[in-house]
Design goal:
Number of helices: 22
CATH superfamily of one domain: ABC transporter type 1, transmembrane domain
Shape: elongated
Strand order of the largest sheet: 6-7-8-3-9-10
Strand content: 5-15%
Helix content: 55-70%
Largest sheet: 6 strands, mixed
CATH architecture of one domain: Up-down Bundle
CATH class of one domain: Mainly Alpha
CATH topology of one domain: ABC transporter transmembrane region fold
Radius of gyration: 35 Å
Number of strands: 10
Distance between the termini: 26 Å
Structural class: alpha/beta
């Protein structure tokens, strides 16, 4: 295998194409949704189908009832039939209303449970996806799948799952009544149906294409909003409000045009239906009048036929509207299913073993890795981190330091070579057991919009109050937490926005301390701290590192002078290794870095 090929194997997944033309037919998509999600609800759906049939039968009885009402009950000698006929028609209305309520509630219940299940599956699939997949898609796009797309599915299910079957059954029954009354009139009335069906089919395909583009644009809109709100500080600092207004305005305008186009396309069905229906009614009236004059039919039969046709007109219009809603829902379903069908590249092997919680060394053996293309992020790296020792990685931004840390918990898989933890290839052990042995503190101190207590305990649910507070003390965070109005119950805001950078970092370090894992990965863990806090944290980290295997990335070289071994990286390779004193005596790259930082150290940060 060539180097380029091996590097491409580890490249991030290509973003999904979710805005193209429909690839699946309506029946195929509906069939998949039904097979995958409706199985557990067969009994409830069967009962709902029975109620739909009752409603359709009652509607047909109302249409048929016009004939005996006119030809029998309205005759002077048969007025005794008026009350019984009226009661029967009233009973048909009661049955129709009760059955409609029953099946609507049942099917809506099933539909909402199905959509909720899909929403849960999408979230589970995304949160367990490869880091490369998640980083390859804007968070707004992923949120759009969970919110906008699934909400469109929810609307389609609540309306269509009930309406399509119900209105179709009603239409079939009424058509049967009409053909029973006069099959010739029936043929006249429904000669326009094939043309209407062909037109609606073409319209549905066009509507789904528009809906997919619209939903893709909604995803872009969510992504842009997320970026601007999260970067509001920089937007204001650089005076880019007008630029962002123009950028968001462009997205809003594209959404407006797509929505208008979607509405125009869906609204086209209304005049087409009216024209076809009007043609059918004219034909029925003309032919029916001629038949009555010739004595081949009765006024009751004609009125019953027209009444049934008018009753059928409502489900026909409803089905047309439902088809538009269905196409929008299926466009959303296609996007959601595309996400569910995206297979993660990094998964547990069938024979994966559990990595025991113990002291583990880390080894890199001839590791090749790239993020795509021909450029390698790591080029044949060999590294040994003995169990219980601390190894530091230094070098310029982009030299491969953070990439090496990402390979240990298997956020990515190597293109060639091996990463070993405790003598086991990380690809041979379960990811849950591997990551249970690792605590990570990065230069991006990620906090969740929750309490300080919950953020410290994140990753070790069930930790006691004493353990949480001790971790905070070890991270030099306890004192400032107590100074907050609500102490450990203080909400930190999105990304910890209510705290300073140093406070956020100390809480992140407290989280790693509480996890108490045998392997520590520290990626610029003290980069956001002031000098006083940094000294406190360095002391805490030294205590924490005792007996643990630690990999440290640092730009401030003074923070890693006590490491057991320091490796200098450059363009994906290790170019120097040794202790602080050995590397200074050698006078190479490390010595030059250290000389630049002597005296006043610049707060340089960056990812390797």
């Amino acid at each position: 295998m060539s180097k380029a090929a091996s590097l491409n194997n580890s490249a991030p997944a290509r973003p999904l194409d979710l805005a193209g033309s429909p690839r699946n037919s309506t029946s195929k998509l509906l069939g998949r949704l039904m097979r995958a999600y409706l199985g557990p609800y067969r009994l409830r759906l069967g009962l709902a189908l029975l109620l739909m049939a009752m409603e359709a039968g009652a509607t047909g009885a109302i249409g048929w009832g016009f004939e005996p009402l006119l030809d029998v009950a309205f005759q002077p000698d048969n007025q005794g039939f008026l009350l019984p006929f009226g009661l029967l028609i009233f009973l048909a209305f009661v049955i129709r209303g009760t059955a409609s309520y029953g099946h609507s509630v049942m099917v809506n219940h099933v539909g909402q449970r199905v959509v909720a299940k899909i929403q849960g599956q999408v979230y589970s699939h995304l949160i367990r996806s490869d880091l490369a997949f998640l980083q390859g898609h804007a968070s707004g796009q992923l949120i759009s799948h969970l919110v906008n797309d699934v909400n469109q599915m929810r609307l389609a299910v609540s309306e269509c799952l009930t309406g399509l079957v119900n209105h179709s059954l009603t239409l079939i029954v009424l058509i049967g009544v009409m053909f029973y009354q006069d099959w010739r009139l029936g043929l006249i009335a429904f000669t326009v149906f094939p043309f209407s069906g062909w037109f609606l089919s073409r319209l549905g395909k066009k509507l789904r294409r528009i809906a997919k583009s619209q939903q893709a644009e909604l995803g872009n809109f969510s992504a842009v909003l997320g970026q601007t709100f999260q970067g509001a500080r920089h937007v204001k600092a650089y005076g880019m409000e007008a630029y962002e207004e123009k950028r968001v305005g462009g997205t809003i305008d594209r959404l407006r045009k797509l929505t208008a186009k979607s509405y125009r396309t869906a609204a086209t069905t209304m005049p087409i239906n009216e024209i076809f229906s009007g043609m059918a009614v004219v034909g029925v009236i003309v032919y029916g009048g001629i038949a009555i004059a010739a004595g081949e039919s009765t006024a009751g039969q004609l009125v019953s036929f027209i009444g049934s046709f008018m009753l059928a007109f409502q489900p026909m219009k409803a089905l047309t509207k439902l088809n538009a809603q269905l196409q929008v829902g299926l466009a959303a379903a296609e996007r959601v299913l595309a996400v569910l069908d995206a297979k993660p590249a990094i998964v547990d092997r069938p024979d994966a073993i559990a990595l025991p919680t113990a002291r583990h060394g880390i080894q890199f053996k001839s590791v090749q890795f790239g993020y795509g293309g021909d450029r390698s992020a790591l080029d044949g790296v060999d590294l040994d981190v003995p169990a219980g020792r601390t190894v530091a990685l230094v070098g310029a931004s982009g030299s491969g330091k953070t990439t090496m840390l990402n390979l240990v918990p298997r956020f990515y898989d190597v293109g060639q070579g091996q990463v070993l933890v405790g003598g086991q290839d990380v690809r041979d052990v379960s990811m849950a057991s591997l990551r249970a042995n690792i605590a990570l503190v990065s230069q991006e101190s990620v906090l969740f919009d929750d309490t300080i207590r919950a953020n410290i305990a994140y990753g070790r649910q069930g930790a006691s109050e004493a353990e949480i507070e001790q971790a905070a003390r070890d991270a030099a965070a306890h004192d400032f937490i107590l100074d907050l109005p609500e102490g450990y119950e203080t909400m930190v805001g999105e990304q910890g926005v209510k705290l300073s950078g140093g406070q956020r970092q100390r809480i992140a370090i407290a989280r790693a301390m509480l996890k108490n894992a045998p392997i520590l990965l520290l990626d610029e863990a003290t980069s956001a701290l002031d000098s006083q806090s940094e000294r406190l944290i360095q002391e805490a980290l030294r205590r924490l590192q005792v007996g643990r295997t630690t990999m440290v990335i640092a730009h401030r070289l003074s923070t890693i002078i006590d490491a057991d071994c320091i490796h200098v990286m450059d363009h994906g390779r290790i170019v120097e290794s040794g202790t602080h004193e050995e590397l200074l005596a050698r006078g190479g790259a490390y010595a030059r870095y250290y000389a630049l930082q002597a005296g006043l150290e610049p707060a340089a940060t960056g990812e390797g």
